[in-house]
């Protein structure tokens, strides 16, 4: 049998794995921002204002669907909503990476933002349940460190990957 110290260790790792979604969101957003110039070159006849919807549509989709995602999670379960969100996020990223035109790319990003809303609203509650109440503040601190780390490495990692391959790989990075 596991001791309480071992159980807390296992729960900590599970909580951090679930909460890593904040890392994924930041990594995704910044890697795509780095790829914007290459995306613009790939679609030279498309106005910058239209291409901006690749990031704007994604962000609006997350923000506008968070309340609905929370209600869905209350109805069908947090874990199920989290898993559905992660799965759909991966699908959206794959479609964006393979997009034959700007319309498909923007649609995939809006879809991916909706999926991100599903796992964003459930990640923290799921993660924090795995920590004893006395360790939840520390857990939130580590989750914040993960997000800050993503903010530091995403532009470098995204730029390196995109330089070595092409802009499409930026959509696959968070997956």
Q: What's the quick description here?
A:
By secondary structure, this protein is an all-alpha fold. Helices cover 85% and strands 0% of the residues.
So what's the overall shape?
globular
**Major sheet:** none
Note the total helix count. 8
Distance between the termini: 35 Å
Give a verbal description of the structure.
The longest helix has 29 residues. The mean pLDDT is 87. This protein is mainly alpha-helical and 175 residues long.
Secondary structure elements and their pairing?
Blueprint: H1 4-19, H2 21-42, H3 48-51, H4 53-76, H5 78-98, H6 102-129, H7 136-164, H8 169-172
Helix pairs in contact: 1-6, 2-7, 4-5, 4-6, 5-6
Observed structural traits:
175 residues, globular
């Amino acid at each position: 049998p596991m001791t309480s110290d071992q159980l807390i260790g296992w729960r900590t790792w599970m909580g951090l794995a679930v909460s890593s979604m904040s890392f994924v969101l930041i990594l995704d957003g910044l890697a795509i921002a780095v790829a914007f110039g290459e995306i613009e070159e790939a679609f030279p006849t498309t106005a910058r204002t239209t291409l901006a919807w690749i990031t704007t549509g994604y962000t609006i989709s997350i923000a506008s669907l968070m309340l609905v995602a929370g209600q869905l999670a209350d109805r069908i379960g947090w874990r199920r909503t989290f898993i559905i969100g992660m799965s759909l996020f991966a699908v959206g990223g794959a479609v964006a990476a393979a997009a034959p035109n700007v319309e498909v790319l923007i649609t995939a990003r809006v879809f991916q933002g909706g999926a991100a809303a599903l796992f964003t609203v459930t990640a923290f509650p799921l993660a924090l349940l795995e920590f004893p109440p006395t360790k939840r503040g520390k857990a939130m601190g580590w989750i914040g460190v993960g997000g800050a780390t993503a903010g530091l490495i995403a532009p470098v990692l995204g730029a390196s990957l995109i330089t070595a391959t092409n802009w499409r790989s930026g959509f696959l990075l968070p997956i």
